[in-house]
Amino acid sequence: MTGGQERTDGGFGTDHELAARLATEAGELLLGVRVEFADATAAERKDAGDKRAHDFLMAALSAERPDDAVLSEEATAEEHANTARLSAERVWIVDPLDGTREFSELGREDWAVHVALWQSGELVAGAVALPAQGVTLATPDVPPPPAGPAAPRIIVSRTRPPAIALAVREALNGTLVEMGSAGAKVAAVVQGVADAYVHGGGQYEWDSAAPVAVARAAGLFTSRLDGSVLRYNQADVLLPDLIVCRPELADAILAVTTAH
User: Fold this and answer.
1) How many domains does the chain have?
2) What residues does Mg(2+) bind to (predicted)?
3) Residue 73, annotated ligand binder?
């Protein structure tokens, strides 16, 4: 990774360090929201978590990288439609709370905070915090996962496993691992809990930007289902499919996904 990783505006550290710190601090804030809203409804807990994490990240990035643009899942429709970011050199792509369903279910650990930086056409820094696990995975130094079993573990949504992932599982004689949150799924591949994440059910840039940055830093393969490059800071923020897997599985997985 190049570019933004060396920026040290205002003495706040490199972009890698900033992404890791903000993701971690937003996660700590969200753990506090869980405690505060323990007796509230799941919907109230979701809404409070989304808003507070978004407000925190927007204020922090405004203070520490005031010249950069930001694309957040929780921005208003008008902010999403603002095309100014398309001409910006640097754009932070954040998901303040990835996996709101899991966050709202007290005791679940498979939710995340995503903070990524796109610069001049590339993801150059990223962090995925898993607050309930006490873990933050951040560029530039992400250890590769340990060796996996002979039968690859394909990670899927616990509520809506896509047909393409089931086809990959069958073709590779693998097993399924169910989990929420795109960030938690990619983190599971990075950590060696699973071997591949194959998604075809619809996502947006903020769902995968930070996880993909972290996965690439760990030496994992990433692409669209058709094998094309994942592109960020586009006019249309829909980025509906992706593959994140151990590099040795990429050809076998692409043989399935490109045939469908």
Assistant:
1) 2
2) 73, 95, 97-98, 207
3) yes
